[in-house]
Amino acid sequence: MTSRNLLQTALIAFLAAPAFLLAEVTTHPSGKSEPVHIRVHAEERASYTVPRTIFGSFLEPIGNSTYNGLWAETLQNPSFEENLWSARAIAQMVKEEPQLERASQLGLPLPWEPLAYSQGNRYEPRWGDAANSWRSLDIIGVPGVQTGVRQRVFLPVHRELQYSGSIYVKHLSGPSTIEVSLRRRNHPEDVFSSSKVEASAEAWKKYSFTLNVPQGKLMRLEPADFVIQVDGDERALVDQVSLLPADAINGLDPDEVAMAKAMNTSVVRFGGNFTSGYHWRDGIGPRDKRVSMLNIAWGIPEYNQFGTDEFLQFCKLIGASPQIALNLGSGTAQEAADWVRYVDEREKRGGFLWELGNELWGNWNLGYPTLEQLPGRTTDFSKAVRAADPQAKLIATGQDADVYQKWNAAQLTDPPGTFDYLSTHFVVTTDRTQDHRDAPDELAEEAFALPVGLGRKMREMQQQIDQSPNFKDKAHIAFTEWLWVCCGGRGNNADAPRFDNMGGALTTAGFFNMLLENADIVPISDMTGIMEFAGIWKKRGQVYAAPAYYAFQMYSTADAYVPVKVDSDSGFYDVRHGITRLPDIQNVPYLEMVGTLNQAGNELTLFCVNRDLTRDLPAEIAVDGFQPKGVAKVEVLSSASIYDTNDEVRPQTVVPRQATLPLTTGPLQYTFRHESVTRIVLHR
Description:
By secondary structure, the protein is α+β, with helices and mostly antiparallel strands.
């Protein structure tokens, strides 16, 4: 086909498309041969300071964020229960491990398997006779044959070789020895470590054991089988098994705790969709007696091992303050007030952040209110919480940044003092556009523009609050969930910025720039999440972080006290008919810089995002009202591609790089790499 025919074909396709759906990114570049000129006015400080609470994060039992993640227990379904997974989750589990279908036919609760499938049916679930929850498992031994159950586990052997365990046993007949062991996956003859327990008690009794993996016997990321075996023709009920690394911190994974502490998050939000069906009393008291149940929101088990006390302990370990979402779905105001009192008594102080529900506008939340019910329910819970703790800071449920008007208007009819903040969320699918045909580069530029559009929406949202006589100058915005996801419209295509790739990290940095410039009206923010999504992951026993974690850390560890004025002649671009949630965003700078001073005024930090997909942008940075000395400390987060990710095999593909930059007279000269996040620290 000739070039003329190609042009005609392209023109026909363009004209055939609905004009109002065609995505458009219009560029307004700066001079190609000239550097970007930036002037930092350190003497012109903002009228507000930056609250540490904008560096908050979010924890919810979803995926493997808590169980199989932060909670160090290596076993799933340790009390042999049923109905802990939704049908969809079970289908996925069986797809990944097809042999579990046969295990289920033998009466074994998922994901337990027989030690040997060839033994046939030697197992009986027992309802109503259990050490924990509702069920136990009867194992019926065969003389001269190893009979037992096993479960695939991933152990952090790169860090810890000793494992502490416990098991509840009720002896029924025959010999009384229970053997627990670690063996090579699907090779029962290859035993790494074993321990025998003399379990002769005819009533339920807890037995402890220790298993040691020999050095080099099991490799990082390699699965093993944890085995429970009876002796000869022994018959025994087993229940509530546990296998923890010896270095677990009261049940918490030490690697995840260390990375969470290094993240330097100020607040951890305990909430999410599970909130509307969560009853806090299920998660307190002796852990062996806490009941396993279905997490209705996500179709996964809620073992209740990680409850209020464990959450508060986690917050202490990482130096964060708790922010807890209350159950305004199936819960009661009295239940909420009792939870507030419980936390205040445990912490020996009050005044914590409490959310009055989560996404109550969504029909996926259990017991959601109608718009007419909303103000009354918010008021009732607020009164109960304020009676329990007059110093409590309350966040009422607001709507998403792009559709907030009607819902927030209803909340603003509440009496004065009902709440201190209105929440907003923005969990956006970055490959859903009005055009439906955007190329990856267009999707990237549209996603990178989202924080700019969100900043403008925050001003509109605050304006609505200030127009309410009940809340003018008394309430602001809490951005309690934000996340970049993708592939909702493209199957498994990951060619868009999302929470786990470099593009998502760049969008995260743009979001923090937005927060720094709007912290007077958005003083609270919780990135989704501290575990999984844009935070810390654990797969096959290996802990690692998404690139966005490092972008978060570049901001949260800075000594940023007050923003200062920054001028720039960077080129910019406009987005029209882009990502569905915020399709039209104008004046998006390619090179965006936000400056802050520390409280002493002797440290100036420049946060820079280069949104350009191909150009390294040279810049001349002049600083007024601040004379730097020595060298500038530079930290850069970038990668070969914005689609690069970290994973358990390559956990440090995308991490920040440190450098220093000698200072000379005149403007600071620096070239910002394309698609990068840069932090520059200057000292007076």
